[in-house]
């Protein structure tokens, strides 16, 4: 019987032997979870064609029965604070028991009080026919909720986080792990809160004691991490007697082993001429650029600078800025949408070739309100920088229409835009027709004033589930031929996906054996795989990847 294991990092496959997870159960006996959507996992049973899972709620006495064909099954809507037992039985083609595993027990913890007071979500509107179905991840509240504002995951207490520790940009990766920036450090965390990866923060790029990570971290399809950092620049600007020292941003891409594989320095773009375009009220130069967001599209990186009011398009191979959007005129070629937005946050690349930003704009002008701004990046025959949508935030009197900072936009699968207003504690969902489909205020209890106060958020991220690209694989050798077998892939996640099957040769290089068709959630596909002769290591392996995602399954062929 083959064994199956998972690893999110391909470089581990190339450096150390893959450890078998065959025989492991999840959730394990005595395990305490911090989420109510659970992916149950258990060993394959020989001769079983399906599985029966009985989950007993030991707190209420309720029994729940499930059936599946894979050795993984996601079960939603369990309950915080409850104790559970579960048992798996393998069934043959006649639904007769082949083998039953022993009962396992686990519990789901009650969410602790937030370090700064209890948090609540006050829904103002929820149209189930028009709103999306994604999970919403609130960074400052440290929870993920469903679209009914019910928590389904909370961040457990982390030993390195103290009361008052800063956390922002909490988001879910393609493989169901979490990214976060905490106290100027950058982390990847498991759902249970274990540190999977930590950025080096060694000053290798900035030349300082650390990199001062901030605002935005993303995991790339190749498994690398891209993060915003800072460095200090010292320059003598025109008309100044002394040099000025100012902070300016960097973009750093790390390999999983912590090596810097690419870097970009904003100081290389912001010349003295560009830095002296903006003046403070006292007439001095405004050198702050405040990099606060980025997004990647192929070889292009779109990066936002709030105080400069610009979005720059960076060609990654050459590191050159090829386009500028918004803000005041730079005097440079390829500057589009001048004056379209000011003091913006986020840079969301939409499927229709547009860019969406939260346009914080001038809060000093009583006649100017913050807004959602969507504009073209020149795809599909449109002019670059053309305004496609401006949705002002003063659409009612329930919350202020001016946001000083923070905020972000997410495009949902149904085409709606989820808008986090930032320093205003409001998140709403806008349909393509300009209707509000979902609307919520986030508040936090203050022990000092004994009242509910506004809780704004830097980012509200989205995901289709806690298990967006989870899948399982099964290998069955064909009778009489150990070098040929049937591989079956089960899509147990919430995203449509396709899969590629690889092997490693004697030199450790990956070779593609098969492409499997696109699978909707809940579906499976099988293919006969012929193993290449005389190219295997002593213990051959198949590696299966969810295409475009850093999510792998490995089969050791014993």
List keywords for this structure.
558 residues; mainly beta; six-stranded mixed sheet; six-stranded antiparallel sheet; 2 helices; 46% strand
Q: What would you say this structure looks like, in words?
A:
The chain is mostly beta strands. It has 2 helices and 43 strands. The strands form 10 sheets. Strands 2, 4, 5, 7, 8 and 9 form a 6-stranded mixed sheet that branches. Strands 10, 31, 32, 33, 34 and 35 form a 6-stranded antiparallel sheet that branches. Mean pLDDT is 90; it is low at 1-23.
Summarize it:
The chain is mainly beta and 558 residues long.
**DSSP strand tally:** 43
How big is the Rg? 26 Å
Coarse shape: globular
- Number of helical regions: 2
Oligomer: single chain
Distance between the termini: 7 Å
Please report which band the strand proportion falls in: under 5%, 5-15%, 15-25%, 25-35%, 35-45% or over 45%.
over 45%
List the helices and strands and how they pair.
Elements (H helix, E strand, L loop, with lengths): L2 E4 L3 H6 L15 E3 L4 E4 L8 E8 L5 E6 L3 E4 L7 E9 L5 E4 L3 E5 L10 E8 L8 E4 L4 E3 L5 E4 L12 E6 L5 E5 L2 E5 L5 E4 L18 E3 L5 E11 L8 E11 L5 E6 L6 H4 L15 E7 L2 E6 L4 E6 L4 E6 L9 E2 L7 E6 L4 E6 L11 E6 L10 E6 L15 E4 L5 E4 L5 E5 L5 E11 L4 E4 L5 E4 L7 E8 L2 E11 L5 E8 L5 E10 L4 E7 L10 E6 L5 E5 L2
Parallel strand pairs: 2-9, 25-26
Antiparallel strand pairs: 1-43, 3-6, 4-5, 4-7, 7-8, 7-9, 10-34, 11-12, 11-36, 12-13, 14-15, 15-16, 16-17, 18-19, 19-20, 20-21, 22-23, 23-24, 24-25, 27-28, 28-29, 29-30, 31-32, 32-33, 33-34, 34-35, 37-38, 38-41, 39-40, 39-42, 42-43
């Amino acid at each position: 019987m083959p064994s199956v294991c998972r690893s999110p990092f391909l470089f581990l496959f190339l450096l150390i032997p893959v450890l078998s997870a065959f025989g492991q159960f999840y959730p394990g006996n005595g395990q305490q979870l911090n989420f109510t959507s659970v992916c149950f996992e258990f060993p394959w049973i020989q001769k079983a064609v399906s599985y029966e899972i009985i989950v007993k709620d030991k707190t209420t006495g309720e029994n729940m029965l499930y059936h599946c064909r894979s050795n993984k099954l996601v079960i939603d809507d369990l309950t915080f604070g409850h104790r559970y037992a579960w048992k798996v039985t393998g069934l043959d083609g006649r639904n007769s028991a082949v083998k039953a595993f022993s009962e396992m027990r686990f519990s789901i913890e009650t969410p602790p009080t937030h370090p700064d007071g209890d948090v609540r979500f006050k829904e103002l509107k929820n149209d189930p026919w028009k709103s999306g179905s994604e999970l919403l991840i609130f960074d400052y509240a440290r929870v993920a909720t469903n679209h009914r504002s019910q928590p389904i995951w909370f961040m457990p207490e982390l030993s390195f986080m103290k009361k008052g520790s800063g956390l922002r940009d909490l988001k879910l990766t393609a493989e169901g792990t979490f990214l976060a920036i905490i106290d100027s450090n950058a982390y990847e965390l498991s759902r249970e809160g274990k540190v999977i990866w930590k950025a080096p923060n060694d000053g290798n790029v900035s030349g300082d004691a650390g990199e001062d990570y901030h605002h935005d971290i993303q995991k790339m399809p190749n498994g690398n991490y891209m993060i915003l950092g800072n460095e200090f620049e010292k320059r003598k600007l025109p008309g100044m007697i002394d040099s000025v020292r100012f902070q300016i941003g960097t973009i750093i891409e790390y390999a999983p082993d912590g090596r810097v594989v690419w870097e970009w320095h904003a100081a290389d773009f912001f010349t003295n001429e560009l830095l002296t375009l903006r003046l403070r009220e006292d007439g001095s130069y405004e050198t702050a650029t405040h990099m606060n967001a980025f997004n990647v599209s192929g070889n292009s990186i779109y990066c936002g600078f709030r105080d400069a009011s610009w979005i720059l398009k960076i060609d990654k191979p050459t590191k050159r800025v090829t386009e500028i959007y918004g803000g005041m005129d730079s005097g440079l070629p390829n500057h589009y949408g001048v004056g379209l937005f000011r003091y913006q946050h986020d840079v969301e690349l939409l499927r229709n070739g547009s860019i969406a930003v939260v346009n914080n704009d001038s809060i000093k002008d009583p006649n100017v309100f913050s807004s959602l701004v969507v504009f073209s990046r020149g795809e599909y025959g449109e002019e670059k920088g053309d305004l496609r949508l401006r949705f002002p935030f003063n659409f009612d009197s329930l919350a202020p229409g001016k946001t000083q900072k923070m905020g972000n936009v997410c495009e949902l699968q149904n085409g709606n835009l989820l808008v986090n207003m930032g320093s205003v504690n409001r998140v709403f969902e806008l349909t393509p027709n300009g209707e509000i489909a979902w609307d919520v205020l986030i508040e936090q209890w203050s022990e000092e004033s004994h009242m509910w106060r506004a809780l704004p958020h830097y980012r509200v991220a989205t995901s289709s589930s806690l298990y967006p690209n989870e899948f399982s694989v099964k290998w069955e050798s064909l009778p009489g031929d150990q070098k040929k077998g049937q591989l079956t892939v089960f899509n147990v996640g919430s995203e449509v996906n396709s899969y590629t099957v690889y092997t490693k040769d004697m030199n450790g290089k990956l070779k593609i054996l098969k492409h499997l068709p696109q699978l909707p959630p809940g579906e499976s596909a099988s293919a006969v795989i012929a193993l290449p002769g005389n190219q295997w290591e002593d213990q051959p392996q198949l590696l299966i990847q969810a295409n475009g995602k850093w999510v792998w399954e490995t089969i050791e062929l014993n």
